[in-house]
# Entry
Amino acid sequence: MTSSAAETEALLDVRGLTVGFTDVDRSSVTLLRGVDLAVHRGEIVALVGESGCGKTLTTRAVLGLLPTPPLAVRGGEIHFEGIDLLAADGDAWQELRGRAMTLVPQHPLSSLNPVFTVGEQFFDLLSFQGQASLGPVGYWRPRLDRATRARHRAATIEALKSVSLPDPEGLIERYPAELSGGMCQRVLIAMALLSNPRLIIADEPGTALDVTIEAQINRLLLTKVREQGAAMLYITHDLGIARELSDRVFVMYAGSVVETGRTGDVFARPRHPYTRGLLDAVPRLSSAPIKGIRGVLPDPKTLGSGCAFRFRCDYAIAACAARTPPLSQLSGLHASACLRAEEITL
Ligand SMILES: Nc1ncnc2c1ncn2[C@@H]1O[C@H](COP(=O)(O)OP(=O)(O)OP(=O)(O)O)[C@@H](O)[C@H]1O
Ligand SMILES: [Mg+2]
# Structure
């Protein structure tokens, strides 16, 4: 995609992010193949794509939480507020992660520590977030200080109330296993909002919940993000939710972004056959059969060059195997990584 003033001012700017690992047979496997993604201040951006396309890996790389080894960033750039995150030291990370950038994780039930009460987990967050090392004095001082405990308790109750959790005074004494999935997710949202972050990364925050609770959680998240003037990168494989929530959308396939643009434009006129396929796979309340996309995601171990979607694409031609199409600007913010984007009507 060509550079523009808007892109250089991005809050989060990911360019050409490549992540891979060396397999047991010493072969090199590439999982993220040059991801380009940007989030601007106050903007809600959806990242969509089938299971396994690399959405969570992208967010983990952004948050510096890739399991390294075995995974490693092999190329590209990640900038947050102009800071080069791939070159950032431990202190810079402590400042950013969990403060300026927070995560609502994909699996609410397994993301809280099962052996501490909700109140203790908030206490740790309020006391120690951003501190690299504590030592016994640093650890015990806030715990033994009555005024600090009272202040953190009040802040926790306030945070739990703000995400509409009933009986926050009782809740702080309970363990995660005593809460429902929706309650755990609200607790995690409250934690993610605690530091007034500039960017919230929400990784499929509703996946583990039933649809009515998921809708409530999404509404709540959206309201809180807008209230705080934060930006949000919202990961989902549900296109209906992406359409409802986001200003812009990035569509990922097999480790790279294949289409992006304003959500309304991409949904009204998709310019990549994969996006068209995803839209056709959305269940509707009519009797029309769901079309879906034939085949499955290619195995990253055997995926060579060329368009990764060509094996499943009705529009593929010989040229699609010859080279990997770059994400090319079509009009305004709309860009597609399809060689035939200008020529075919989807
Ligand atoms: N630690 C790891 N080691 C090796 N491969 C991994 C590792 N973590 C993820 N992968 C692979 O990377 C690819 C992308 O995984 P990722 O979790 O990012 O998918 P996703 O788009 O978030 O899927 P979902 O919608 O199911 O959450 C998958 O092929 C997955 O098997
Ligand atoms: Mg995921």
